[in-house]
Amino acid sequence: MTGLAAGLVSSLLILMAESGAQTQAPVFQTSSQLVLVPVTVTDRYAKNIEGLHAEDFVVYDNQFPRRIASFGVDDAPSSVGIVLDISGSMHQALAGARGLLHAFFGTSNPADEFQLLTVSTQPEELSHFTTDTASLEDTVDRTRTGGLTSLIDTTYLALKRMKAAHQPRRALLILSDGVDNHSRISQGELISLALEADVQVYSMIFNTGAQAANGVPFAPALVAKPWQVARDRQGPDFLEKLSDKTGGLYFHVRSDDEARDAVVRTARALRSEYLIGFQPSDTKDPGKFHQIRVKTNVPKLYVHARNGYYAR
């Protein structure tokens, strides 16, 4: 993966330069009640779509259409929490995950900051938020696989640590096969925290051919019983759901080509988000959950945005 990572960095730097030339400065209206929603738009091939305008979007808050009060596109610095799965089930995929991270760091804005946590029997914080990507890459290269998998617990901790982030744009990048056999926190608790934290979750889902929750070796689909197939899909399905609900993207990584595609699309999504602001339909009930739906009136495009927020 070393050659792949080097090639990715080179091509991605060109892509980021091209994208930066097309960015627009965001225009925001001052309002203590303004809800800001980061939005990514893709076509049917998951290619990022740029150049849209406020009139191309419609926002619904608890099923009521809301007037867009602010709209912008900007390659603003980001705070990105990284959750790297180094548990036993990732033994065959860890080299690929390292290569992905090297390429991803190569696309970063100089003001971007990153925090690194690893998934094993217990969550472990390997770094606080830092802009020193060289140090992070060295730390990543020294990781070794082993142990059970507390993926949900580690992701929950990473979201908690986002409170220490310094940049307004915040995201979480998970690199895992989705297996979880040692977490105490529930999936529902994790999703609630992700929505409350207003953090987009991007998932790189590796096909490791590993075990499911009980540690039994994975049976290929051609010989596996239906209950085994359903069991082995639970982890990846949850990562897909977590990304969908928070407005992030997810990618399945089974080859070098898919790895290259995943890094390019994730980097472009973080660099070319639309930021839509609107005033909520009801501000009288702090703590109430509001459902959000963002649509575009441009045919054959897909909008990725978080599906709700908690009123302040």
3D architecture notes:
The chain is α/β, with parallel strands linked by helices and 312 residues long. The protein folds into two domains: 31-75 and 272-310; 78-270, von Willebrand factor, type A domain (Rossmann fold), CATH 3.40.50. Helices cover 32% and strands 26% of the residues. It is built from seven helices and 14 strands. The strands form three sheets. A six-stranded mixed beta sheet has the order 7-6-5-8-9-10, with helices on both faces. It has a four-stranded antiparallel beta sheet with strand order 4-11-1-13, with no helix packed on it. A four-stranded antiparallel beta sheet has the order 3-2-12-14, with no helix packed on it. Helix 1 packs parallel to helix 7. The N and C termini lie far apart (45 Å).
Main sheet summary = 6 strands, mixed
* Cα-to-Cα separation, first versus last residue: 45 Å
Shape: globular
Any idea what the CATH superfamily of the largest domain is called?
von Willebrand factor, type A domain
